[in-house]
Every structure is written in structure tokens, then in C-alpha cells.
UniProtKB/TrEMBL annotation:
<comment type="subunit">
    <text>Homotetramer. Forms an RuvA(8)-RuvB(12)-Holliday junction (HJ) complex. HJ DNA is sandwiched between 2 RuvA tetramers; dsDNA enters through RuvA and exits via RuvB. An RuvB hexamer assembles on each DNA strand where it exits the tetramer. Each RuvB hexamer is contacted by two RuvA subunits (via domain III) on 2 adjacent RuvB subunits; this complex drives branch migration. In the full resolvosome a probable DNA-RuvA(4)-RuvB(12)-RuvC(2) complex forms which resolves the HJ.</text>
</comment>
<dbReference type="GO" id="GO:0016787">
    <property type="term" value="F:hydrolase activity"/>
</dbReference>
<keyword id="KW-0234">DNA repair</keyword>
<keyword id="KW-0378">Hydrolase</keyword>
<feature type="region of interest" description="Domain III">
    <location>
        <begin position="154"/>
        <end position="210"/>
    </location>
</feature>
<protein>
    <recommendedName>
        <fullName>Holliday junction branch migration complex subunit RuvA</fullName>
    </recommendedName>
</protein>
<feature type="domain" description="Helix-hairpin-helix DNA-binding motif class 1">
    <location>
        <begin position="71"/>
        <end position="90"/>
    </location>
</feature>
<comment type="function">
    <text>The RuvA-RuvB-RuvC complex processes Holliday junction (HJ) DNA during genetic recombination and DNA repair, while the RuvA-RuvB complex plays an important role in the rescue of blocked DNA replication forks via replication fork reversal (RFR). RuvA specifically binds to HJ cruciform DNA, conferring on it an open structure. The RuvB hexamer acts as an ATP-dependent pump, pulling dsDNA into and through the RuvAB complex. HJ branch migration allows RuvC to scan DNA until it finds its consensus sequence, where it cleaves and resolves the cruciform DNA.</text>
</comment>
<dbReference type="GO" id="GO:0006310">
    <property type="term" value="P:DNA recombination"/>
</dbReference>
<keyword id="KW-0238">DNA-binding</keyword>
<dbReference type="GO" id="GO:0005524">
    <property type="term" value="F:ATP binding"/>
</dbReference>
<dbReference type="Pfam" id="PF14520">
    <property type="entry name" value="HHH_5"/>
</dbReference>
<dbReference type="GO" id="GO:0009379">
    <property type="term" value="C:Holliday junction helicase complex"/>
</dbReference>
<dbReference type="InterPro" id="IPR012340">
    <property type="entry name" value="NA-bd_OB-fold"/>
</dbReference>
<keyword id="KW-0963">Cytoplasm</keyword>
<dbReference type="GO" id="GO:0005737">
    <property type="term" value="C:cytoplasm"/>
</dbReference>
<dbReference type="Pfam" id="PF01330">
    <property type="entry name" value="RuvA_N"/>
</dbReference>
Length: 210
């Protein structure tokens, strides 16, 4: 089992990063590649090594909480690595834990790839197991009262693509207010039917400008 990889990010894609470790490039699929923005610093990515008949894949995370939640999600029937990765792209571990503990199916079904039956299985399979995670999510989740993700006016105005971009950026630590201001600045520019990745890049440009 490869528990973590430490090295420099040499390539950034919409689904993965490539980390150079002693002249070997490891392709690591991650919920938010932009969290590991390419720079010259040595970084640590906590990983899950997934082996199947036709491939050996690495999934990577910015911290131990994401890694632990990913592994818990894999215990749910019907959730594979790609779906689990999408869930973490849609919400922070403590927020997902809060939704499970509160049996908030409305919130869970807003996560990528999650229908009502899968959300119900998440609650059934994980509600009583999250406390078993060392340093688990129960304390952080206890004070979180969830709203329906995507209730902001700017988000609704921007449509589904902006909503997905906005949710991904919020998992990187940006606040709703910051992203709404970025959207207001972007509205004055020509925005064709862009991808989530393209809108994220535009928003980041606005955020970097301050």
C-alpha cells in the first residue's frame, strides 16, 4: 500500500497531477488538482493505492481527513473510486460527514454521481462508523448545519457549469462571498459555453487579482 507520495508537481491536469519523486513521475487522480498548483515546492499527497485486474491507480488527497473519508466511502455498496473522488470534489470531509450524520439526503443527492438510493446506503452504512476514524469527523461535523448546496443567487444565475466550478473552488477554501464577487467580475466579460475547468481558471484569475 502506498500511503503518501512526496515530491514536486510537474504536470497538472483536470483530473490528476503528476508528481516527480526521484525522477519517477507518479500519476495521481485527485478531487481537486488545483489544490496542488504547480510550483517548485516539495509537497506531500496522501494516497490510496487501488489495484484492479487491468490497472493499478493512485488516488491522492491534500490531507488525512480526505484520505480517510475516501476509504470509508469505498465501503458503501455501489461507490467505487471514481464516484468517491467525485463526492470529495463536491464537499469537504466534515461536510459530507455532517450530511451523513444528519441523514440529509437532499444534500447528499446533490453530490456528483449520487442518487437517492446511494445516499440512503451512505447513511445506512456509514452513520455509525465515522466515529471509528482516528481523529474522525464527528467533532467537526457536530456544529455544521447544512444548507442545500447551490442556494446562492450568483450560483443560480451562473447555471450548472458555474455551480460545479463554484463548488469545486469552495472545497479549495474560497468563501461563497469571494466567489460571488469573482462571478460578478466575470459577468462583464464574454463567457461562452465553457467547461467547468475553464470557468475555474477564469474565477482563479479574478481571485488572484483580489
Amino acid at each position: 500500500m502506498i500511503d503518501y507520495v512526496r515530491g514536486r508537481v510537474v504536470h497538472l491536469d483536470t483530473e490528476f497531477v503528476v508528481v516527480d519523486v526521484h525522477d519517477i513521475g507518479y500519476q495521481i487522480f485527485t478531487p481537486n488538482p488545483y489544490a496542488f498548483a504547480k510550483n517548485d515546492d516539495i509537497i506531500t499527497i496522501y494516497t490510496h493505492h487501488h489495484v484492479r485486474e487491468d490497472a493499478a491507480l493512485l488516488f491522492g488527497f491534500a490531507n488525512r481527513d480526505e484520505q480517510a473519508m475516501f476509504r470509508k466511502l469505498l465501503d458503501v455498496s455501489g461507490i467505487g473510486p471514481r464516484v468517491a473522488l467525485g463526492i470529495l470534489a463536491g464537499g469537504k470531509p466534515e461536510t459530507i460527514a455532517a450530511a451523513i450524520q444528519q441523514e440529509n439526503l437532499t444534500f447528499l443527492t446533490k453530490l456528483p454521481g449520487i442518487g437517492k438510493k446511494t445516499a440512503q446506503r451512505m447513511v445506512l452504512d456509514l452513520k455509525d462508523k465515522l466515529d471509528a476514524i482516528p481523529g474522525g469527523f464527528s467533532f467537526a461535523a457536530a456544529g455544521i448545519m447544512l444548507e442545500d448546496p447551490g442556494s446562492g443567487a450568483a450560483e443560480a444565475e451562473g447555471g450548472q457549469i458555474w455551480r460545479e466550478a463554484r463548488e469545486a473552488l469552495m472545497t479549495l477554501g474560497y468563501t461563497a462571498a469571494e466567489l460571488d464577487r469573482a462571478w460578478q467580475s466575470m459577468k462583464g466579460t464574454d463567457i461562452p459555453n465553457e467547461s467547468v475547468d475553464a470557468l475555474m481558471k477564469r474565477a482563479l484569475q479574478q481571485l488572484f487579482k483580489g
